[in-house]
Design brief:
With 492 residues, the protein is of the alpha+beta class. The chain contains 19 helices and 12 strands. Pfam families: PI3K_C2, PI3Ka.
Length: 492
Amino acid sequence: MQPSPVPIPALVQTVISCVRLLCERLLYVEPPSLSDAINHLRQTCKPTSCLDDNIGGVAIDGQQREDEYSDKEEKIRSPVNRTSVTRAGDVLDDYIIGNEDDITDEGVDNSGGGIVEALELVREGVHHLVTMYCLSLLPGYLPEWWAEPKKVVPLSKQTRVFRVKACALHKLPIIDFRRYSHFQLEACIYHGGLPVSKRTSSPPAKISHSFFSSIVWKKWLNFGVPLSHLPRECRLCLTLHGLETTSSTNDRGWNRTPIAWVIQKLFDSRGVLIFGPRLLGMWGGDEVMDPLDSPYPNTSRDAVLLELLFEDSGERVKYEEAPPITSHAPSSAKKPGATPSLLYRGLKKMADRDRFSSLSMEDEKLIWSNRFLLRDHLSSSPRGLPLLLLSTPHWRPPHRDDVWAVLGVWPCHDPVHGLELLDPQLADGIVRKTAVSWLSGLHDDDLCDFLPQLVQSLRHDNYERGAMAELLLRRAVLSPRVAHSLYCYVCI
């Protein structure tokens, strides 16, 4: 007995209900690509009076949205395990593949494309949502349809400019955002607290409504810096601004108020450049973004979620490992511009300054031009090597390679000098490894005295498994006193 054809309105209503339930299950996130696919499906299946408009996603005011989140708070608390996420991507497959031969096109407007093509777009949108959820919140797990390219290319061979697409903002606190008429996302790339790219912003956007309230930009942000110029420890800093019109507005016509921010690492612990769709929980409240803060998103249940799309070229771009450090200065070393006695007095005067005093541009040029001679003059000073590192013009080749060469020949007269290399502005991984190698020479009693500073330095590590964390854990295993002290300082 042949099954009866599936009515189009009933099928579409069932698909939309499943998609909405899936979005609720995955933290009330509705990507713009999925919203566009649902709208296209509803336009394809006419007359729309056959569909439930509440399921289709008409605009609902802010108070109703707040009540909706409150009523379904328990659903958010329920865990989303890997089995449920895997099945979520197959929900539409069951409907589309199982019924595509039986559906009838009676009463359907096919001017914009067939119903099967519209359902296929919805399925692609669901796959995008599940993939984004897995990449962001289920590390180490990817859905079966995600094929990660195996080809790896070095970062130094890349000439394209780094860019990222600002897609949307989800899980909005309507009551807190009600005072603003528009919202704008501002982004910049930092390394050691200093910008390495131009500052770019998205166009202002209002709150829109589909299944849920969201702010949609769908705008590519171009930072104007080639991929080969990105340091491994660089981080993308994003700030959400609320815009409102007042009598004291600036020349642009908006009064900008920062309301949320987030910091994202651009390279993982393997040195692979970030790619694909991501969800980032933003930090809010009275805190102001500091580029030196920990580069970890907000994982609380109430955090607003920023949807980004990092450009994917189909190849994995990897940062090259540090080359072996030579025991001699490269042949490109420059001769000092002054006599050795005058040079020594000038460098010694800089090293004797207070560590909080800044260097002038002339001082930085003098130090950098004589970078391979500093070992003979200031190697015994705790401020010698930090002065050189802070005078580095930038952290990309060939300057980066010169710094690594100097680190390889710089002697360690006192392990305590390694504390100077833990400055948050010295974010390079090789510099921090050098500091840890020096500090490893401390006895247990001395190490316990410096534990507060060492624990605080963990906040500025780009990766959880860094050189400092490994040193502290190794010494804690060998010494009960270090273990007890470390536990107390970590818990504070």
